[in-house]
Structure formats: C-alpha cells, structure tokens
Specification:
The chain has 221 residues and is mainly β. It has helices at 42-45, 64-74, 88-93, 102-105, 126-130, and strands at residues 6-18, 24-31, 35-40, 49-54, 80-85, 111-117, 122-124, 168-170, 174-186, 191-195, 205-210. It has a single domain, classed as Elongation Factor Tu (Ef-tu), domain 3 (Beta Barrel), CATH 2.40.30. The strands form three sheets. The chain has a six-stranded antiparallel β-barrel with strand order 1-2-10-9-6-11. Strands 3-4-5 form a three-stranded antiparallel sheet. A two-stranded antiparallel sheet has the order 7-8. It starts with 5 loop residues before the first strand and ends in an 11-residue tail after the last strand. The model has no long low-confidence stretch (mean pLDDT 91).
C-alpha cells in the first residue's frame, strides 16, 4: 500500500519545457491546492490517513451530512474528496483546514505515481480497442473488414475463453501511471509539471503520490 505523501490536483493541460541543451520535454501541468478536510488516526479509526478536498461546489448539491462536516472543518464544501493512507508521522504534521502545499511534498526530479480516470471512448470495436489489423480490403472480402474473426472452436474447448479480446466499453476507467518524473515546480501558483502524459481530460482530478517502486519516492515523508 502506498503511504508516501501526496496531493490532489486538477489537470490543466499540456505544455513543453526547453532544457539547456535544446531538448524539448512534453509536460502535463497539474494545479495543486488541496485542503485537509479530515484526519484518520489509528486510535480512533484503526488506521492513519488524510482526507483531502479540492475545489468548491454549491452546498445545496450535497447531502446535509457531507455539508455539515465539510463546513465545520473548512467553511466550504469541496468539489472532490479523496482519502490518502499515510503514516502516523505525516498525519500528525497537518491540521484540519491546512493547505497541502506542493513544495512541502515534492521536489524537482522526484518520481511520482499519478492516478486518474481515463477519457471515455464509449463502445468500440476490436480495431480501435485492441489494435486488430482487420481483414483484407480486396479479394472478395464483403462486410467483414473490421470484424475480429473467429473467437473459438466448436469441439474443443467448446466455449469462448475468458479475457478474449472483444468489442466493448473503452476508457472511463481508473488508471495509474507509475514513475512519472517531476520536471518543474511553481510554488507561487501551486503548479506541478510532470514529464509525459497522464490519464484524464482537462480539469480532471488526479492523485499524485510518491512512487512505490523508486527509492527516492518517500524522501520527504
């Protein structure tokens, strides 16, 4: 389980950075500014975690229980809330209502894991969903150009194997991209520049945490 420090952020879009040697690095820009809405402690809840909120929404659009708890903690109702498991030391560093600043959690060059919801593509066929090449466009092929072909045999095994590449819903799933490098931080604007692409469309909510597979991920814990 990832217990490294992390933030919630809004994906603003993509840009590029120019290095000293002229190399162009494509980057995704993420806007931070998450606020601690609540804390979970082992003594009270059986585990340690921080509940972070991002943005703001109208109070009339949420239940009374959520509205009362949020307004009591931070005087507003966040648009999105996420619970991040953490160590007891990290939870003790923050108070309810405090902003989790990016410079306190990350540094340039650090590797992070980014979790978000991929862009929904609807119901798609096997060529777009799985990269099938399709059938011939000539030599008598008729109405089968984008079909997947045979999916099994009659006698053995007498059924279609589980996991067979078939048409279906594409995208709109939770995706985690690991070991993304932080290329730049702008503390004044709470902006994080990540090398490469991350899941989600513009204004999508992302979760950034120290990478679980890199030794430098938890150096600020």
């Amino acid at each position: 389980m990832n217990t490294h420090p992390g933030i919630l952020g809004k994906k603003l879009g993509m840009t590029q950075l120019f290095l000293d040697d002229g190399t162009v690095v494509p980057c995704t820009v993420v806007q931070g500014g998450a606020v601690v809405v609540a804390k979970r402690t082992k003594e009270k809840d059986g585990y340690d975690a921080l509940v972070l909120g991002l943005g703001e929404r109208k109070a009339k659009n949420v239940s009374k229980a959520v509205r009362t708890a949020a307004e009591k903690a931070i005087q507003k109702v966040p648009a999105v809330q996420r619970e991040l498991r953490a160590t007891a030391e990290l939870v003790a560093k923050y108070e309810v209502g405090q902003v989790v600043r990016i410079e306190d959690v990350f540094e340039v060059g650090q590797r992070v894991d980014v979790k978000g919801t991929s862009i929904g593509r609807g119901f798609q066929g096997v060529m777009k969903r799985h990269g099938f090449s399709g059938l011939n466009m000539t030599h008598g092929t008729h109405e089968w150009r984008r079909h997947g072909g045979s999916i099994g045999t009659n006698m053995t095994p007498g059924r279609v194997f589980l996991g067979k590449s078939m048409p279906g819903q594409m995208g709109n799933a939770t995706v985690t991209v690991q070991n993304q490098r932080i290329a730049k931080l702008l503390p004044d604007e709470q902006l994080v520049y990540l090398e490469g692409t991350v899941p989600g469309s513009r204004n999508a909510v992302l979760t950034l945490r120290g990478a679980v597979k890199k030794k430098n991920a938890g150096k600020k814990a």
